[in-house]
């Protein structure tokens, strides 16, 4: 079922952000590095959804540039879809601007693409799909 998979929040320090969410009594899971995005991240499960905490590995990365320009804050919204490839095809057929034309593999093995904010009401929108079963 489509749902909000997660809200991505850019933070200067993952360790400090973890401490804050732990003080709220929340669990933090799945800390990992995604080299091709230049990011270290951790997830805060909240019911069916999650908060994704994003720390830049370097200044010249998408999150590093975001932090330099805008400071900490909400970076993107991720919607889980059932047929990501089909969804991307429909968007491309209508000329929707994507950040990258290719579906990528991210944290936890899930598949994702980013839709450019100019096509999504000013919001950086991630579309994602759960990892294929049995992998
Ligand atoms: Zn995300």
Question: What does it look like?
Answer:
The chain has 135 residues and is of the alpha+beta class. The protein has one domain (3-129): 2,3-Dihydroxybiphenyl 1,2-Dioxygenase, domain 1 (Roll), CATH 3.10.180. Helices cover 21% and strands 38% of the residues. The chain has helices at 14-23, 62-70, 84-93, and strands at residues 3-11, 29-34, 39-46, 49-56, 73-80, 104-105, 111-115, 125-129. The chain has an 8-stranded mixed sheet. Strand 3 and strand 4 form a beta hairpin. The longest helix is centred in the first third of the chain and has 10 residues, at 14-23. The chain is globular, with a radius of gyration of 15 Å. The mean pLDDT is 94. The site of zinc ion has 6 residues, from strand 1 and strand 5.
TL;DR of this structure?
The chain is of the alpha+beta class and 135 residues long.
How would you describe the shape? globular
The number of domains = 1
Query: Strand order across the biggest sheet?
Result: 2-3-4-1-5-8-7-6
Task: Describe the largest sheet.
Answer: 8 strands, mixed
